[in-house]
Amino acid sequence: MQHEPTSCDRRPCGTGCVLSRGMGGEVMDPKLKADLIEALEECAEYFANREDADHDGERYIPNKEMRLHQTILEIEARLDRA
C-alpha cells in the first residue's frame, strides 16, 4: 500500500519515510526531529565558542561562525514550534 507522496518522499510506505501527511500538512518523524535538534545543539555550542566580530572602522562585522551560530539558533527555534 502506498501513501500520497510528499515533496521529499516518493517511496512506498515502510521504506524510511521521513515526513507524513497530517491534518495540518507534513509532520516530521519525532525520532528524526529529536536527533536533528540534538545535532543542532552540538553545532550551536561549537560555533558559540568560535564566534567573533571584527570592526571595519565603522561597525562590527560578524565572522562566519557567528553567522552560522545565529542560523542554527533560528532553525532550532522553528523546530521547537513545529
Structure description:
The protein is an alpha+beta fold and 82 residues long. The chain contains 2 helices and 4 strands. It has helices at 30-48, 64-81; strands at 19-22, 25-28, 53-55, 60-62. The strands form 2 sheets. The protein has a two-stranded antiparallel ribbon. A two-stranded antiparallel ribbon has the order 3-4. Helix 1 (30-48) packs antiparallel against helix 2 (64-81). The two termini are 28 Å apart.
Write the layout of secondary structure elements.
Layout: E1 19-22, E2 25-28, H1 30-48, E3 53-55, E4 60-62, H2 64-81
Antiparallel strand pairs: 1-2, 3-4
Helix pairs in contact: 1-2
In angstroms, what is the radius of gyration? Answer: 18 Å
Distance between the termini: 28 Å
Helicity range: 40-55%
Give the strand tally: 4
Count of runs of 4 or more consecutive helical residues: 2
Order of helices and strands: EEHEEH
Query: Biggest sheet, open or closed, and with what strands and sense?
Result: 2 strands, antiparallel
Point out poorly predicted stretches. Answer: 1-7, 9-15
Shape: elongated
Arrangement of strands in the largest sheet = 1-2
Strand content: 15-25%
Summed over residues and divided by their number, the pLDDT gives a mean of 80
